[in-house]
Amino acid sequence: MYQVVNLHIMKKVVLLRHGESAWNQENRFTGWTDVDLTAAGVAEAHDAAKQLLYNDFRFTYAHTSYLKRAIKTLNTVLEDMDLLQIPVVKSWRLNEKHYGMLQGLNKAETAEKYGEAQVKIWRRSYDIAPDAIPADDTRNTRNDPKYADVPQDLIPLTESLKDCVARALPYWNEAILPSLKIHDQIIVAAHGNSLRAIIKYLKKISDADIASLNLPTAMPYVFEFDDNLNFVKDYFLGDPEELKRRMEAVANQGKAK
Question: Whole-model pTM?
Answer without folding.
Answer: 0.92
